[in-house]
């Protein structure tokens, strides 16, 4: 039977004794069934009238570490945005100055006694939560402070863009506890590439915000947390110029085309999609607004 990690095990991740006692700086593929335990207070959803949404992991005392209920609440929050046509941009962040420390230590201790079948079934809940984030039609942006460890860094990778505050630490440290970053792997590999992912996964090493920028895990590093306000305003203003339906279609286009052979079938499909966009309500309005030298309706 696998033993739960001790504080000494956690200190192998280069965190202090106090941090080791409070957080687990890794992702974990184990997730208890979230649906009955989902708690809205663990995840805050705030929205403006003009379609700007903030999803905040709200466990600051635990450095926003994942447990079953938090994963359930995140899943529900992300899924609620799938049909929200008015949403322009979704910001994902953590309360209290830390994005997410990964898996909750108490949750991991409970999970250590699960069977392989339980592990397999419950891992799917974490996978579904990440996919629900990945499939949001609006632009998704991670705002990262303090630390994004394991599953927290996987959450970053599942967003369309990521902005980190200087000094933020990242790690995929599963191998230091004999585990692998399985459920987050598709998103991390898409973000940083297979070769870089192999190195980060195999070493479990800590890396900085500047390194995360070089790797492609984040898109921008700002000097202070206060600078995130300017990032939020800039993206919110910029996305108002973009047709919401076209944004979702453009994201799906990348998903469907990436890695495909450029053959007649792909050319036919891409031609079909642009033709449909040209005759759509948004396409007609956008082109006519451009020719008339006015703003399209969605930008008013």
Based on the coordinates given, report the CATH architecture of the largest domain.
Answer: Alpha-Beta Complex
End-to-end separation in angstroms reads 61 Å
What radius of gyration results from the CA coordinates?
Answer: 20 Å
**Looking at this structure, what is the CATH superfamily of the largest domain?**
2-enoyl-CoA Hydratase, Chain A, domain 1
Number of strands: 9
What CATH calls the topology of the largest domain is 2-enoyl-CoA Hydratase, Chain A, domain 1
Given the helix and strand composition, which structural class is it? alpha/beta
The outline comes out as globular
The helix content is 40-55%
| Largest pleated sheet | 6 strands, mixed
Notes on the structure:
The protein has 300 residues and is an alpha/beta fold. The protein folds into two domains: 7-239, 2-enoyl-CoA Hydratase, Chain A, domain 1; 244-299, Lyase 2-enoyl-coa Hydratase, Chain  A, domain 2. Helices cover 45% and strands 13% of the residues. The protein contains 13 helices and nine strands. It has helices spanning 7-11, 17-22, 68-79, 105-111, 116-134, 151-158, 185-192, 194-203, 209-215, 228-239, 244-257, 264-279, 281-291, and strands spanning 43-47, 52-57, 89-94, 139-144, 147-149, 161-165, 169-171, 207-208, 220-222. The strands form two sheets. Strands 1-2-3-4-6-9 form a six-stranded mixed β-sheet, with helices on both faces. The protein has a three-stranded mixed β-sheet with strand order 5-7-8. A hairpin with a 4-residue loop joins strand 1 and strand 2. The longest helix has 19 residues, at 116-134. The protein is globular, with a radius of gyration of 20 Å.
């Amino acid at each position: 039977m696998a033993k739960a990690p001790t504080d000494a095990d956690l200190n192998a991740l280069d965190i202090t004794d106090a941090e080791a006692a409070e957080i687990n700086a890794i992702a974990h593929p184990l997730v208890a069934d979230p649906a009955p335990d989902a708690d809205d207070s663990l995840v805050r959803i705030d929205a403006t009238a003009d379609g700007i949404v903030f999803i905040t992991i709200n466990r600051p005392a635990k450095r926003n570490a994942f447990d079953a209920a938090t994963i359930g609440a995140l899943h529900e929050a992300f899924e609620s945005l799938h049909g929200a046509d008015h949403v322009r941009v979704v910001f994902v962040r953590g309360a209290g100055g830390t994005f997410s420390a990964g898996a909750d230590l108490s949750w991991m201790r409970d999970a250590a006694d699960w069977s392989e079948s339980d592990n397999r079934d419950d891992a799917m809940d974490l996978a579904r939560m990440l996919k629900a984030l990945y499939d949001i039609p609006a632009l998704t942006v991670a705002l990262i402070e303090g630390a994004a460890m394991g599953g927290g860094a996987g959450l970053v990778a599942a967003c369309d863009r990521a902005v980190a505050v200087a000094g933020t630490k990242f790690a995929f440290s599963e191998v230091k506890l004999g585990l692998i970053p399985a459920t987050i792997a598709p998103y991390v590999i898409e973000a940083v590439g297979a070769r870089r992912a192999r190195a980060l996964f195999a070493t479990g090493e800590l890396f900085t915000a500047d390194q995360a920028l070089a790797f492609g895990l984040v898109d921008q590093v700002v000097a202070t947390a206060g600078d995130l306000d300017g990032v939020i305003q800039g993206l919110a203003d910029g996305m108002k110029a973009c047709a919401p339906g076209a944004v979702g279609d453009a994201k799906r286009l990348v998903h469907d085309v990436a890695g495909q052979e450029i053959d007649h079938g792909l050319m036919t499909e891409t031609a079909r999609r642009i033709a449909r966009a040209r005759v759509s309500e948004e396409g007609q309005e956008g082109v006519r607004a451009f020719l008339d030298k006015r703003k399209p309706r969605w930008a008013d």
